[in-house]
Write a structure and sequence with these properties.
The structure holds two protein chains of two kinds. Chain A has two domains: 41 residues, Arc Repressor Mutant, subunit A (Orthogonal Bundle); 79 residues, Lrp/AsnC effector binding domain/regulation of amino acid metabolism (RAM) domain (Alpha-Beta Plaits, 2-Layer Sandwich). Chain A is α+β, with helices and mostly antiparallel strands. Chain A has a four-stranded antiparallel sheet with strand order 2-3-1-4. A two-stranded antiparallel ribbon of chain A has the order 5-6. In chain A, helix 2 packs across helix 3. By secondary structure, chain B is of the alpha/beta class. A seven-stranded mixed sheet of chain B has the order 2-8-7-6-5-3-4, with helices on both faces. In chain B, helix 7 packs parallel to helix 8. Classes of the chains: A alpha+beta, B alpha/beta. The interface between A and B is medium-sized, with 16 and 29 residues.
């Protein structure tokens, strides 16, 4: 990856909605070149998608419950943990799956409407998978920071308007 | 001018100084809503968390007492290592350094340490608003030398020669410059150094923006051949480490001068705030990665703003450092103050009229790009709309 690609990725990682023209100006390159780099990175699946970070607790009646589940599994011969991970991440309720070092193997993030819904998923879908030995479910009580963004309103400019 | 009866008690020197032109503008902009300010002379970043946390920790540990007059020795040693590492200049932490309340205090100490009543100090304009008044307060006579956009606001050595008298003692340099963003290259500095040496002058080099250069590596005036013993190097933590409110700066220079500055500091300030010194120590030890990140962000926004100004047809030299652009507003037919005021009233964008930085700042405005990309783009749209109505 060259330095322009890296710079562009760092810019859109912070703000995926930056317009191509703005990115071009920030980087001091042409709009065409910016488009080319973006397309290349999308094609190579370096950029996998663009999403918004949303505080669902605000302005909506729909609550969301997120749980992080520590999963211990027996790895399958030949494919290791990958096959089990795939069986788990194919469920749409699953937001994230990571292979971990330490006392358990997979960390699985689940999102549901209610605790009961998440509970059902764990008992009916997750723990019934062959290779799964045990699960430990942790419900998230409050989000303070997610993907580098702080969930608070205290970000106004605290500087005086004009200074030497 | 104050006309209350008690004004008769005021010292003549103080009476002779005008309040900064920036003040009136601040009052005006503060009274309005929905203002996008490009008038702020400080980073838009909050101090990196590890630095804030180090200060908390020092307070928890009970470090609430005075430090040595010159500042914590540990901090001075770290400053000494930092100056060597970043700028290749060597100063003894024990004898050639003082930690001050912002670079501003360091400038005041430097001037008071070397200027006798009536001696002349060359101030390169457009300049930071404090230089000339600080010279006056120190009993000196500020002698402005104008720089111009056709020279990219670079000081020409022959301009110094033209104003030198037998009373000239000091030249105040600031590179990267506030408000123009101009950076003096090694070659520029060497040419100035020749004049300095020839006329046996001293240089107060304000290098507070030294970390923020975008196009070429920075040269400290003190690193120029034979200049170390003619330089009082002023710097601090405000700009590079986003620590303006902590008020922490420092000065380095030859022993005799630094000891004289320390004497004034000892009697008038005791020491810089202890908790800020602990924060600064952390900034030097673990803060360079944040400096790099912030600098990258300024460089990108510089590119954004220069592009936008070009498209509006406002000519602007590309500033090599700091976080200001200083475009010419000549084509608008307005004075810098008129433009700044009308722009504020009509489009709620605050810029600083160039005239507050000295006579040669007229015809320009200072725009700081230390503001979010979204706000910068909106400000540029508003300025463009404003210019089209003229």
């Amino acid at each position: 990856m060259d330095s322009k690609e890296r710079e562009l990725l760092q810019l859109i990682e912070k703000n995926g909605r930056l317009e191509t023209a703005t990115i071009a100006r920030l980087m001091g390159i042409s709009v065409d070149e910016t488009k080319q780099i973006l397309e290349k990175l999308e094609k190579e699946k370096v950029i996998l998608g663009y999403s918004a970070i949303i505080d669902w607790t605000k302005g909506t009646e729909e609550g969301a419950v997120t749980a992080m589940i520590d999963v211990k599994v027996t790895p399958k011969r030949g494919v290791g943990f990958d096959k089990v991970a795939e069986r788990i991440y194919r469920f749409p309720e699953v937001k994230a799956v990571y292979l971990m070092s330490g006392v358990y193997d997979l960390s699985v993030s689940i999102e549901g409407k209610t605790m009961a819904e998440v509970g059902r998923f764990v008992s009916e879908k997750l723990s019934t998978i062959d290779s799964v030995i045990s699960t430990t479910t942790h419900f998230i009580l409050k989000k303070y920071k997610h993907d580098g963004l702080v969930f608070s309103d205290n970000d106004e400019d605290k500087r005086i308007v004009v200074s030497p | 001018m104050i006309t209350e009866p008690t004004s008769k008690y005021l010292a003549n020197t103080v009476q002779s100084i005008q309040p900064s032109g920036i003040r009136r503008f601040f009052d005006l902009a503060s009274s309005m809503e929905n203002v996008i300010s490009l008038g702020v002379g400080e980073p838009d970043f909050v101090t990196p968390w590890n630095v804030i946390e180090a200060s908390y920790h020092s307070l928890e540990q009970g470090y609430t007492a005075y430090t040595a007059n010159a500042g914590l020795l540990e901090l001075r040693k770290e400053i000494s290592r930092y100056m060597k590492r970043r700028f290749g200049v060597t100063y003894s932490a024990e004898e050639e350094m003082v930690v001050t309340v912002g670079a501003s205090q360091a400038i005041d100490l430097a001037l008071r340490a070397v200027v006798n009543p009536g001696e002349e100090v060359i101030v390169v304009e457009p300049s930071f608003v404090s230089y000339a008044p600080t010279v006056t307060l120190a009993g000196g006579v500020p002698v402005p030398v104008n720089t111009y956009s056709q020279d990219d606001f670079k000081l020409q050595p022959e301009q110094i020669e033209a104003v030198i008298t037998e009373k000239t003692k000091v030249i105040m340099l600031c590179s990267p410059n506030n408000p123009t963003g101009t950076v003096l290259s090694k070659g520029d500095l060497e040419r100035i150094a020749e004049v300095v040496e020839k006329h046996d002058l001293l240089v107060i080099s304000d290098e507070i923006y030294a970390e923020l250069t975008y196009d070429e590596p920075y040269t400290s005036f003190s690193a120029v051949r034979n200049m170390r013993d003619r330089t009082i190097l002023i710097s601090g933590f405000s700009k590079a480490f986003a620590m303006t409110g902590w008020r922490l700066g420092f000065a380095c220079g030859p022993k005799a001068i630094l000891q004289a500055m320390l004497k004034i500091h000892q009697y008038t300030m005791m020491c810089a705030p202890t908790m800020a010194q602990h924060a600064a120590l952390e900034a030097l030890v673990n803060g360079q990665k944040d400096v790099v990140k912030m600098k990258e962000s300024y460089r990108q926004r510089r590119s954004l703003v220069i592009h936008a100004l070009e498209e509006m047809g406002l000519s602007c030299h590309v500033p090599g450092g700091a976080f200001y652009v200083f475009p010419s507003i000549e084509k608008t037919g307005l004075s810098s103050e008129e433009l700044a005021e009308q722009l504020l009233m009509k489009e709620q964008v605050a810029v600083v009229p160039g005239s507050v930085f000295g006579e040669s700042g007229e015809g320009h405005v200072r725009c700081s790009y230390a503001t979010s990309v979204q706000k910068l783009e909106e400000a540029m749209r508003r300025i463009d709309r404003f210019i089209k109505t003229l």
